Structure formats: structure tokens, C-alpha cells
Amino acid sequence: AASNNNLDMFEEMHLAALIHKGRTGDPTVVPARRALEMATRDAAKALGIDHLVGTLEPGKRADLAVVSFAAPHLIPAHSICSHLVYSAGASDVRMTVVDGAVVMEEGQFPGQDAEEVYRNADVRARVLCSS
Q1: H helices then E strands: how many in the chain?
Q2: Is it true that the peptide bond before 76 is cis, omega within 30 degrees of 0?
Q3: Which of 13, 53, 66, 78 has the most C-beta neighbours closer than 10 Å?
Q4: pLDDT in tens, 10-50
């Protein structure tokens, strides 16, 4: 998993920002915007797929998460970027779009059997862990 066992990339951004602050003693060392760039644009570069993903621009795949800010921990939203890094979590995601197609909306997987998706993920994880 790209984001530890809980599959929460928001938590990973949060940790990336906080760990560097604690290690250096500098509260400005990894600002929220930088942590978000690390999780998106820089991750795509590291994987060698930045020509396909990592930023939203013409010619690239439309991979995105739609986050609801209608929760007490996200109000008031003074800085969307800071809220995404320091306050949001996977449970705030309402929709996920991969290559322009909705793959998850309000906890449902349109056009897919959720139980089958979970079974396939479990089988693949067991194969990966056994090698």
C-alpha cells in the first residue's frame, strides 16, 4: 500500500509535514502546500509517470478525489491546502475519479460489486505477501 495499512494518503501528507517539523525544529520546513505537492506532483515524478498524472492539466489523466468540507474538523476553511494536509482524512472523500471515470462515490463503487473488489484485493495482497 502506498499509504500504510489504513490507505489514508491524507494521514501520510500530515505525517510528512509534521515529522520534518519535529526533526528540524523548524515549523516552516514543510508547509502544507509542499506536503500536498509531495503527495501528488512529486509522487508522480518519483514513479516516472508525471507525464500522465500528478497535476490536473490538459492531456493528463483526470485522477482526483472530491473532498467534503462539511464536517466540524474542516470548518472554518481558512486554507483549503492546510485543511487537506492537517485536518482532512480518507473518510472525508466523497468521490474518487481515475482517468476521468468515477470509481467511488459516497462509499459505493458504481458498476462494480464491492464484495468482489474486496475479495480481489485480498487475494492479490496475499499473493504479494507470499512472494
Answers
A1: 5, 3
A2: yes
A3: 13
A4: 999 999 999 999 999 999 999 999 999 999 999 999 999 99
